[in-house]
Amino acid sequence: MSPHDVLCVLLERLGANDGTAVLISEHELTHWPTAAVAVLKSQGMLVKASPASSVVCPGCEDECVMPVHVLNYPTGRAAFVVCGRRNDVCRVPVASNQLEQWQTSANLIADLLARLLGLRRPSASDTADSARWEVGLFKGRQHSGHLVLLPDGGSLKLTLAGHSVALGDLLFLESQRFEVDRRALTRLVDQPIAGGGDQESAAQRRERLQKRVDAERARGNGAFNKTVAEEEGIGVSRLKQILAAKPEPPKAGSKW
Hints:
Structural class: alpha+beta
Strand content: 15-25%
Distance between the termini: 57 Å
Number of strands: 14
């Protein structure tokens, strides 16, 4: 099993789970390449999860999923399952690595992509949609666009400037590090598809930028407008225009 195979396994499981958290036991990780697992943990793509509350019972070939019982002793603790289905099996010890587990998620991958690309991710309050993970504003040589991670029918994809590409075609796990194809992203953002991509209304953009300005001001950043304008790839005067714009009045006959 190569590091690339490990990444493919994780992306496939996440895709099948629509990007929500996927659990992986420490026992399974012992069968993966040690160097690859170390990179996954050090880069935050695998984070420690709560111990498993149920396991596949190792007592016989039936492999039943059973709840785990844990007893604490002065010298340590013992975990076991209780089998009432067979006369020759009762209390079955469970190894500690069967209880230890890790988790990954699309949100963790979005964090990883943002670090690799040097982007600032929006705060959780800016992205209420649980099936959409914005990575950040990606700047090419000529244009900028919002890089967004989405589930895609059993896989994960990135959308940028109207383009859509499988995450596995851009993110790679080498023996000692992750790599992302920045050149491919630059080509995509510099060749935007008119009318395509992740659309944001004027009101949504104004609200998002106002939150960023408020956050920078709260941090004590005296150049809050300049900071946010540079992130957005616009001038300070243009930022002020956007924030000062008033919502359009409701159209005649509208309920809102």
